[in-house]
Amino acid sequence: MREILIEPLARVEGDGGITIRAEGKKVKEVRFDILEGTRLVETLVVGKTPAEDLSITCRICAICTLSHRYAALRGLEKALGIGVPPKAQALRSLMHLGELLESNSLHVFLLALPDFLGYPNAIAMAEKYGDDVIKALALKKYANHIMAVTSGRMIHGENPVVGGFGKYPDRDVLSDIKKQSQELIPTAERAVAILAGLSIPDYFEQETVFMCCEPGDSDYGIVGDSIRISDGQVVDASEYRMLTNERFCTHSAAKHCLYNGKPYTVGAIARMNNLGERLTGQAGKLFKKHRNKRWHTNPVFNNLAQAIEMVWALEQIPKIVDSILKVKNDPPIVQPSRKEGEGVGAVEAPRGTLYHYYRIQDGLVADANLIIPTGQNLEDIEKYMRKAVEVLLSQGADDQTIRMQAEIIARAYDPCISCSTHMVRFERDVK
Amino acid sequence: MSNEATFQSLSILLADASTAVIGLGNPDRSDDGIGVEMARQLKRRRPEHVFFEPEHNPEDVVLELLETERIRNVLFIDAVDFGDKPGAMKLSGAADAKRLLPAISTHQVPITLLMELLQAKGKQSRLFGIQPGSAALFSEMTDSVKQALDDFNKSVVDKIRIKGFS
């Protein structure tokens, strides 16, 4: 058995690796290893108040902090019988778009693009693409600003609370956010143009299932109480266990998920495949121009989906800001109507559908279950890598080529290992 | 380079009003916060163009500095594992810094990328690295790194005389 390790896997969030074992041209094993230890968050929050839960669960990850907070809010508020007013809902939407823009811009420009432009990393890419990198950082800075303004600070902000917000941003700050969004659309369009011009390898293509939140009202969106599946079903989010079927895996500190016994994909490409026809404006034009049937069989198009999603987010922001500004008075925080109940909050984190389930008893968290996007993608990441390795081995590819292609597939999923609480080892037997 | 020579170079760099400083690290993680603490101490004597985490996001600061004509040099201060004894200090140019720092940082934009962008815009950058002894969460700085901070304060911060500030 020959073994080649990729450890750590670069340009992903957290510590993970890839293990590939082969005997001659036969693949024995392809694993996406999660190397970070489990953090037992679901147990930590038992016995805590909903407010404490919010402050703990958002710390699962510094990148997806607001998605965790938002999913927790939605789950807790359902359990406690709280409905938030439209102004609070709109500010949450703005907050959520800020995080999506921050995460997508970092991934597209700095983590994914170097693979395709032939650079080892963004630092090497900066010499030729310096202006694009600076524009990407400006977009990221803008997104950081939205997150700070809405949540109270850039990371782990405490301003979004159960029942609303502690404080609403000043009107002039919001107006400036609206103005800047228009100025940044060309940067997101530039990302689309670069990615759309790339040659995407096709030898690992195969069908899969896509899942995302169903936002309702025939809109594109990143939140919803039900889940749309690419097989045509729409399932209430409260059925999340049936959809995800989490299970332990010996090589991973993160649990793996299967739908009807099969791998599936969540994230920007799932949202685009399931909801993209609903896009309007410039994002709609770009979707219609660039989307093709390969998007259903090739996860590397996730990078382009993320870029189009940035255009969409920037086009949404002015509408959301207007809806916040039209309500002059800041609504008070809505108090719980009960001390017991159950609720599932589902949101689209940048990397896909995130579920927070809570059972509240006597006003305290009695049970919690968090299902993370990267955990849901792990089986598909391994499935696509395995196919790629099979084909490459049959073509007599060298180890470096195999490693590179496996990394490209893993990175296209933009895995958030801290959230999933694991990388590629390559082992090959040469006899 | 001896500590005396390093302090001498830092003093010259920091006496120049065209130098900006960015302190990096996490003060909740023992010696990892040394860059932030040194920048804080510097700001007492040299308030302009001194930034530190978490109040300031490094890439956001660099974006502004790229557009600030007056700034020609940027000094990054950070805990850097260069394999020496805890508290050891090293002042490096951008090329050496690229060898010392990881190319990829998963949670933020890599500092070496920011150095590359500064260089592309004609600005010089340096890295002042302090060898950490520990990065344990919610732990105090180790004695060796505290000593490095004291030495930095006495030899650089307390003697600072800035030319060019109004």
Low-confidence stretches of chain A: 422-426
Number of helices of chain A: 13
Query: Could you state the order of secondary-structure elements of chain B as H and E?
Result: HEHEHEEHHEH
The rough form of chain B would be described as: globular
C-alpha termini separation of chain B: 33 Å
Written account of the structure:
- The complex is a heterodimer of chains A (431) and B (166).
- With 431 residues, chain A is α+β, with helices and mostly antiparallel strands.
- Chain A has a single domain, classed as Cytochrome-c3 Hydrogenase, chain B, CATH 1.10.645.
- Helix content of chain A is 47%, strand content 19%.
- In chain A, strands 1, 2, 3 and 15 form a 4-stranded mixed beta sheet that branches. A 4-stranded mixed beta sheet of chain A has the order 8-7-6-11.
- In chain A, strand 12 and strand 13 form a beta hairpin.
- In chain B, helix 3 packs parallel to helix 5.
- Chain B contains 6 helices and 5 strands.
- In chain B, strands 2-1-3-5-4 form a 5-stranded mixed beta sheet, sandwiched between helices.
- Chain B has one domain: Rossmann fold (3-Layer(aba) Sandwich).
- By secondary structure, chain B is of the alpha/beta class.
- In chain B, 39% of the residues lie in helices and 16% in strands.
- Classes of the chains: A alpha+beta (431), B alpha/beta (166).
- At the A-B interface, helix 5 of A face helix 3 and helix 5 of B.
List keywords for this structure.
heterodimer, A: 431 residues, alpha+beta, Cytochrome-c3 Hydrogenase, chain B, four-stranded mixed sheet, 47% helix, B: 166 residues, alpha/beta, Rossmann fold, 6 helices, 5 strands, globular
